[in-house]
Amino acid sequence: MPLIHYVTQVQFEFGAIALLAQECARVGIKRPLIVTDPGVKAAGIVQKALDALPGLSVTVFDQTPANPTEAAVRAAAALYQSNGCDGLIAVGGGSAIDCAKGVAIAATHEGPLTRYATIEGGSPRITERVAPVIAVPTTSGTGSEVARGAILIVGDHRKLGFHSWHLVPKAAICDPELTLGLPARLTAATGMDAIAHCMETFMSSAFNPPADGIALDGLERGWTHIERATRDGGDREARLNMMSASMQGAMAFQKGLGCVHSLSHSLGGVDPRLHHGALNAVFLPAVVRFNAGAESVQREHRMVRMARVMGLSSGSEIPDAIKAMNARLGLPSGLAALGVQPGQFDAIIDGAMADHCHQTNPRLATRQDYQDLLQASM
Length: 378
Description:
This protein is α/β, with parallel strands linked by helices. The chain has 15 helices and eight strands. Strands 1-8-5-4-2-3 form a six-stranded parallel β-sheet, with helices on both faces. The two termini are 37 Å apart.
């Protein structure tokens, strides 16, 4: 049965990080663990968070990898427990936020993380005991700050999803000022991640009109502003709209994603060096073309509606428009440019078929369909 649920408290404005102490007090966090990564710390953003938390006893874990792993989650959870922390503040992109969600589980629930993975039937095992999380995104891509899920590489090297409404951050502090000056390549890759979220959730056949409206508006904001944000890291209007597009795509996650993400999750597990947003950008044209044949997409004119907000005259133009956008943004032209080899296809398809996003694509893909999508994305 479709679920319509919105979502958490969001503070969205330039300078919103100044509200961090206020949100900690509201949530009841007195001894937070900040979960972040070396780049965010080096950029001075962690210090901004610390400056906004006067009087609190704060511990910092700054070793989140680009693709968060169970090992990183365990290291941060040990720090959380040894310092008597009572909540988490994730400061960073989707990796830091997802890592913090993993810590929220690991610090309060026993057993290996795989026990709580969605495809292992673990969602009901994630309880209200999870540590509370406040999310402070520093990129405009994943939208994990308003999402119930996290993507983590577990001990057996699979890249798995963890989903529970208990994992939704208790507060999201969306401060576009934290994204000013973000490098162009990272802006482009995370921005296309947000656009992929808006498009995949909008194409999903689940009945959720509020999510459809949010996703479609997010697509328009993202598509209109991504080039400006990439070209000029100081463009405040573009940064604000990209952060909103990111948040809106994730607000629609409850509809489910699709083949773009089942493929990028799987390939990201096969080769963790690859950036999730760049993979989504590469897979999106082929998957949009594949989904255009879905009955629900045709019946509800979803290609036409997406084309309209993208400034295109027909839905058939969308795949080529995405390819052209990727080229203008300086993103990889295909999987071959990322070093992916056809010999890896079987392993990628195995993971995609098992991924939680596989079942919610509007057109159920077969192994041959995935083979064709991979070949078309090379």
